[in-house]
Amino acid sequence: MTATRTHSTFDLLLAEAQHALETTVGNPPARRPYPAAATPDIALDENERRHAAGLMRINHVGEVCAQALYSGQAAVARDMQTRAHLHEAAQEETDHLAWCAQRLRELDSRPSLFNPLWYGGSYAIGLLAGLRGDGWNLGFVVETERQVEAHLDEHLDILPPADLRSRDVLRVMKADEARHADHAEHAGARRLPQPIPGVMKLASRFMKTVAYRL
């Protein structure tokens, strides 16, 4: 009979640290195909390219934050089903992370210089949300995903008209985010009280302002 290894706290900490490094400075692969693979890569002028890169850098940061949030929440989730939901959503967010990174490379740009900072802050927020209990944990997922949906809609409106490849990526991401929120609602999410959603919007606005340039 093969013995099942019990992971120590140190093992778990090492796993979390490895995930953080892979997310912030690595290049984790996507499991699903790149949504823009068959879409023409139309040449953009310099201003359009810079603007598209700024928007996709914001979206890449959003996926870094999502990885951190879900990891922090899953680390303290009390219910196995809630933890499984968080891990499943995180895997799709890994696809988003890889797609945004690929589009940034196509635009001759790079991810945010502050990714480790965004990750650390988001992980701490995820831990705090998870410690409130699974209903609040899932409620945080719903609010996060609804706000991400809204900003993806905004980006779809303000991307350069010729940037069809970024649009294809964002459309798939938006559909995934909506599904994550719906699943969390059906799993028993509690509505977050004010001022939490408002504070989340302010933090997101700050992140987007910085990440667009850096």
Protein architecture, described:
The protein is mainly α. The protein has a single domain (44-213), classed as Ferritin, CATH 1.20.1260. It has seven helices and no strands. It has helices spanning 9-24, 46-76, 80-106, 115-131, 134-158, 164-186, 196-213. The longest helix has 31 residues, at 46-76. 39% of the residues are buried.
Question: What is the secondary structure topology, with strand pairs?
Answer:
Blueprint: H1 9-24, H2 46-76, H3 80-106, H4 115-131, H5 134-158, H6 164-186, H7 196-213
Tally of helical runs: 7
CATH homologous superfamily placement: Ferritin, core subunit, four-helix bundle
CATH class: Mainly Alpha
Beta fraction:
under 5%
End-to-end Cα distance, whole Å, is 53 Å
Q: Tell me the CATH topology.
A: Ferritin
How many beta-strand elements?
0
Shape: globular
| Rg from Cα | 17 Å
As for the number of domains, it is: 1
N-to-C series of helices and strands: HHHHHHH
Contiguous runs where pLDDT drops below 50 for at least 5 residues: none
Q: Please describe the biggest sheet, giving its number of strands, its sense, and whether it closes into a barrel.
A: none
| Strand-pairing-aware structural class | mainly alpha
**CATH architecture identity:** Up-down Bundle
Mean pLDDT: 88
The residue fraction in helices comes out at over 70%
